[in-house]
Amino acid sequence: MQWDDLKVFLAVARTESLSGAGRVLKVDPATVGRRVARLEEGLGTPLFAKSPQGYAMTDAGQRLLAHAERAEAAMGAAVEELAGQAGALSGQIRIGAPDGCANFLLPQVCAAIMADNPDLEVQIVALPRVFNLSKREADMAIGVSPPAAGRLTVQKITDYRLHLAASRRYLRRHPPILGLDDLKDHRMVGYIPDMIFDKELDYLTGIGVERVALASNSVSVQFNWIRQGGGVGIVHDFAIPSAKGLVRLLTDQVSLTRSFYLIRHADDRRMDRLNRFATALADGIRREVARLEAEV
Question: CA–CA distance from 2 to each of 6, 8, 35, 65, 107 (Å)?
């Protein structure tokens, strides 16, 4: 069995299609199909079952996956060691993150890391959902709750705080907010209820808000609605310094604490380059949250 064949197998397993694997590998899908067929013939067993939904792994494919991922990690570690990457970081690293973290923390944190590592390429995938590291959607991900399953390692980065907020312009034009009962007379901003991908993000239900007039699956859209005077909503404290005129409300009655976690594939812990980047990333996020919250 050749390493190139295992790379093809991993690409199909993660994308669940020949065309998706072809895009990852930059080869024609027909070539991917031939390589998979050759590997299956050599092993004497089917690795995938084709259906209208795509290519699903068979039991044999599931058993091979663990070995292929260990081989991938070993190859990556060998390349790093032979390249002598004890100095500056280089190459491409992709981070998955919820868009609040991706918009208000990661740009400056990653810029600082790259200032010391000019050959490094960083990709930030800002999506309001949980990332599947097993399918290599990202090299590492930041989450707001630790995953309960999968061959993953989880490191708590830091706590962060959130409060109700509105713009001064909105508050001048609407009735005063002296208690939670007053919120029923105000336009609330929040998540689309059936698109909340993590229970830790269900802020408004916890304070008794039943109706969200301005809703989005993106925390950045919510933030801009609030900043522009659209209504009242829950805002990350670390985002407030980026918008003049935002006022925190009912801080003695509503004060939420959540956490960021750094999530990685277990096999990647043997890769020095990713370990060093993960350490710098976690340290940078921790410092940036503390700095920005101190400005509020």
Answer: 7, 10, 11, 14, 39
Which residue has 């990333």 as its token pair?
A: 281
Model pTM score: 0.74
Give one DSSP letter per residue of 19-85, joined into a string: HHHHHHHTS-HHHHHHHHHHHHHHHTS--EEEETTEEEE-HHHHHHHHHHHHHHHHHHHHHHHHHTT
Secondary structure letter of residue 186 according to DSSP: S
State which fold the 3-83 domain adopts.
Answer: Arc Repressor Mutant, subunit A (1.10.10)
> Using CA atoms, how far apart are residues 101 and 108, in angstroms rounded to an integer?
11
What's the mean pLDDT in 70-76? Answer: 75
Angle between helices 106-116 and 272-295 (to 10 degrees): 130
Architecture of the domain whose range is 91-156+259-291? 3-Layer(aba) Sandwich (3.40)
